[in-house]
Amino acid sequence: MFFIKLFISSFFMIICIGVAFDVSSLLTSNILGPVNIDDNTKNNKNNFEETKTNITKRKSEIKCNEYRNAVTEKVWLFHPSQSKPFSISIPCKQPINLLISGGGPVESGQFPHMAAIGWSDNDSNIQYFCGGSLISENWILTAAHCTQYRLKRKPSVVRLGSNRLSDKMGEIIKIIDIIRHPEYKPPEMYSDIALLKLETSVIFRKNIRPACLFSQIHKLPMAAWTTGWGQTESDEDKGSDDLLKVRLEILDNVDCSLSYNKIPIIPDGITSGMLCAGDLHSTGKKDTCKGDSGGPLQILHPSYCLYELVGITSFGKLCGILKYPSVYTSISYYLEWIESIVWP
């Protein structure tokens, strides 16, 4: 849903179109500072020009750009010296703090693609055992091992838009289809990736937005954020009621293989369909843990107010053990499979 607000100053008339945000900082800051002027406005080209550049892009990249347009905070400026208005995109205000096991609480709306996956026998009795990520209006991305039977049933619902599992906020949507990667063969953990189709399409808003998919298979970031409602210690019985976040460093797979040599669930070792991340230079206490499975390993997109999914939480040795990073399913490795189902 769009809205229009008018702000008048002695220099500019400003029209804001998009999702809710605080424009006061724009009015009080140096307007001549670094802002992104939309190319189609600057060059007086219509919006259809953009489709020409999208022809060579991946489906997921095209959809990411569409989602950006749906959630970007845009401002139109009218200046007395110019005959036509021009637009700028407000810098993304995702709160990122250097800070799950050894992690900190998530601020409202900080990871709006985060999903809790639940097992239910009725609408009033739902237990959440895994995480996932909203990647389109109809699909959740998670780990394949999160789709196995628990409590004698498959996962049946997804919860979006709330960081606290015990509150009454958020939106609960039924799962109507579960698609595991065809090469997932438990108990082995290779191809630990699955897609959940939602019964109804999600309407994007401040606390519910999709994530983009990281596509650079040979150019991983140095660090990324992971989020989840899992246990904060290995010996705990219950997970966290609040969504937690932690920043982890990404390891080279060769180095990671030294920690996972001759493990029954990965007899061929760490493969290119996996990546590893952990707390390398402190106590090792920062990590994902039981209950975080299926959740995202993510970075903030450099241009959009959206996150990019780099990995899916898969498995590890206990929680927060120094020199034993957790293992994640690589998004870029399985990107073609994801696209073939979500955007056929």
TrEMBL record:
Keyword terms: Disulfide bond, Hydrolase, Protease, Secreted, Serine protease, Signal
Kindly indicate whether the keyword Protein biosynthesis belongs to this entry: no
The residues the entry assigns to the signal sequence are 1-20
InterPro entries in UniProt: CLIP_Serine_Protease (IPR051333), Peptidase_S1_PA (IPR009003), Peptidase_S1_PA_chymotrypsin (IPR043504), Peptidase_S1A (IPR001314), Trypsin_dom (IPR001254), TRYPSIN_HIS (IPR018114), TRYPSIN_SER (IPR033116)
One Pfam family this chain carries? Trypsin
Residue spans crossing the bilayer? none
In the record, biological process GO terms are: protein processing
Instruction: Tell me the compartments it is located in.
Output: Secreted, Extracellular space
Q: Which of the seven top EC classes does this enzyme belong to? A: hydrolase
**What SMART domains does the annotation carry?**
Tryp_SPc (SM00020)
GO-annotated molecular function: serine-type endopeptidase activity
Where is it chiefly localized?
Answer: secreted
Q: What is its EC number?
A: 3.4.21.1
Q: Which residues form the Peptidase S1 domain?
A: 100-343
Gene3D superfamilies in the record: Trypsin-like serine proteases
Q: Which PANTHER family match?
A: EG:BACR7A4.3 PROTEIN-RELATED (PTHR24260:SF147), PTHR24260
Which protein, by its recorded name, is this?
chymotrypsin
